[in-house]
Amino acid sequence: MQHNSVLYWEKSLMIQKKEIERVKSPLYSTSPVDGDISFWKAQLFGPAGSPYENGVFLIDMHFPPQYPFKPPKVFFRTKVFHPNVGDHGDIFLRMISTDYFSPINTIHKILTKIHEMLRNPKLGEGEYYDEEKARMYKEDKSGFDGRAREWTLEHAMA
Question: I want to staple 158 with a disulfide (CB 3.0 to 4.6 A). Which of 22, 27, 56, 67 is the partner?
Fold first, then answer.
């Protein structure tokens, strides 16, 4: 039983790896690390026209053996000033939380959604976010953009 589930999650990740190679997204690049299909690194390219523009943000993804039925652990390795990103790189995005994760949330969809989140923070009811950064985003957008740009220049320039 256990052996089959390992094969299933490895197969699922291999299929997604092929999809990512085929799609060649301009938003990110990603692959498993040193042939370990359960650990991936990604580079997310900051959205044009945002304070994150020209930044290259490093993301780690750890896939549990229960994947795709349990979400991967996904977090920024690069410091990011953003309401949906915690001080230690935690990403507050509903689609990768245990309660909301679905097998349809592929690696491609997750990274695309994180890219979109950089441009449009998720601040609605039921979303998780840093209160202080969210308040600054809502009440002092130019101040927020300035700080986000400073962090991008300091931490995310390739």
Answer: 56
